[in-house]
From TrEMBL:
Pfam families: MT-A70. Residues 427-437 have a biased composition (Polar residues). SUPFAM superfamilies: S-adenosyl-L-methionine-dependent methyltransferases. It comes from the Eukaryota. This is Methyltransferase like 4. GO terms for molecular function: nucleic acid binding; RNA methyltransferase activity; site-specific DNA-methyltransferase (adenine-specific) activity. GO terms for cellular component: cytosol; nucleus. GO terms for biological process: methylation.
Length: 450
């Protein structure tokens, strides 16, 4: 079960189970035949056993020692400066943290206790010292290459949507960069795209493109009841690591939210712990789109034993991230609002507690915790996505990033008609990119768009 525990403070999620729900039972298309397999996300990606505390720090969330979480890791040597030299942003961060500290501490303790009562977050590892999947090729580079392709004349423009798998099982002619791709099957599929194997969840649609080529998503014509986005915020650590290209905050205003959102659509934005970003979303970005701020939630990252992954009061990294929730309220909209959605209020300062992925930028799915706020049969969209979710539409220049088979264990399914038994420890299938005879193009970006 993906929602392990829940109370009036929020939820405890098993993020790995959430991924497996959408793709555990798959059809694998391989040249001229197909087989049935189970695809389970590699558990070692969610086996964070130790928190980033100093060795003498007690990182437990109990009543007697809860203030011990202020103990910090010994920072790297930096130029010493006086407290009075804190810049405006650092002062803002301290003020914001002081305001929400008790919410984070008390809420996390309550939720972790609830998880302990059902045997979760007990510190046990499901895997040994298995290595993490190999470093992946950045799909953003392929989107840049796709821009060099000749434009199709508007009079000859093909439909903006296509099926992932043709009737004969072929995926060789799928245009990932300028058309929305759909998997309408009741099961996930494992297919070869651009010379690599990917796991595509059931009932999903996606567009692999960057900000300048988002128009096919608009032409897709759907109106969404939930829009979740994880923008590539500008910050110093991103610039130093060069993990991905950031986007200036002001450019986010160009996102066509009013075109994509249904009336009363719930809009959720992941925000870094910079108060300037939080203020921008609440006071500038949301009003620009006609989105009314309704709540502020927190994702709290813990280890497999329920400790904060970083000291709560660390001046460098915090064990939480912020989510800003709003409702799209078009000023001139004659379409009646859904009574089911308009009556559901969103509580403020709820917590989502989970063990974070060891893979950079992989966020937990919000589908389970948000479904009660968006009504039945809601249409859901994720922007700047790095993975796919069953029943959702996803867009981004790395939208298939965590769908590569390097991140999954694939096992043969004995009987595809049997009830899904979930992930097992059966011998895994060697994927195309893991073959010892052939180096993975996933680790070295392919030179063609395929």
């Amino acid at each position: 079960m993906s929602v392990v525990a829940q109370n009036n403070r929020g939820w405890v999620l098993d993020a790995c189970s959430l991924i497996d729900q959408g793709c555990s039972l798959c059809i694998r298309y391989n040249d001229k035949y197909k087989s049935h397999v189970r695809c389970c996300f590699k558990k070692q990606c969610f086996q964070l056993l130790q928190s980033h505390y100093s060795l003498n720090a007690a990182a437990v969330l109990d009543g007697e020692n809860k203030d011990v979480v202020q103990t910090t890791v010994k920072p790297a040597k930096k130029r010493k400066r006086k407290h009075s030299e804190l810049n405006h942003g650092e002062i803002d961060s301290q003020v914001f943290h002081a305001k929400i500290r008790s919410v984070i501490l008390e809420g996390t303790k309550s939720l972790v206790d609830s998880a302990h009562s059902v045997g979760y977050l007990n510190g046990m590892a499901d895997t040994g010292k298995e290595p993490l999947p190999p470093k992946e090729c950045r799909l953003a580079a392929l989107c840049e290459m796709a821009k060099e392709l000749p434009l199709v004349d508007s009079e000859e423009q093909e439909p903006c949507v296509q099926s992932l798998v043709a009737a004969n099982g072929s995926t060789s002619h799928v245009d990932l960069f300028s058309r929305v791709t759909e998997n309408k099957a009741d099961k996930a599929v494992v297919v070869t795209l651009m010379g690599e194997d990917y796991v595509i969840p059931r009932h999903t649609a996606f567009l692999l493109s960057d900000f300048t080529h988002i128009q096919p998503l608009v032409d897709y014509g759907k109106k969404y009841d939930l829009i979740v986005m994880d923008p590539p915020w500008e910050n110093k650590s991103v610039k130093r690591s060069r993990r991905y290209s950031s986007l200036p905050s002001t450019q986010l205003k160009r996102l066509p939210i009013p075109v994509l959102a249904s009336s009363n659509c719930l809009v959720v934005t992941w925000v870094t712990n910079r108060p300037s970003h939080l203020r921008f979303v609440r006071d500038e970005l949301y009003p620009h789109w006609g989105v009314e701020f309704v709540a502020e939630w927190f994702w709290v990252k813990v280890t497999t034993s329920g400790q904060f992954v970083f000291p709560l009061d660390s001046p460098h990294k915090k064990p939480y991230e912020v989510l800003v929730l709003g409702r799209y309220r078009p000023s001139a909209d004659s379409t009646p609002r859904s009574p089911e959605k308009s009556k559901v209020s969103v509580e403020d300062q709820r917590l989502i507690v989970s063990v974070p992925s060891a893979l950079h930028s992989q966020k937990p799915s919000l589908s389970e915790v948000l479904k009660s706020y968006i009504g039945a049969e809601a249409e859901c969209l994720e922007l700047f996505a790095r993975n796919l979710q069953p029943g959702w539409t996803s867009w981004g220049n790395e939208v298939l990033k965590f769908q590569h088979t390097n991140y999954f264990n694939l096992t043969l399914a004995d009987d595809p008609e049997d009830k899904d038994e979930g992930c097992t420890d059966k011998p895994t299938i060697t994927s195309r990119s893991n073959s010892p005879e052939e180096p993975s193009a996933f680790q070295h970006c392919p030179s063609t768009l395929g």
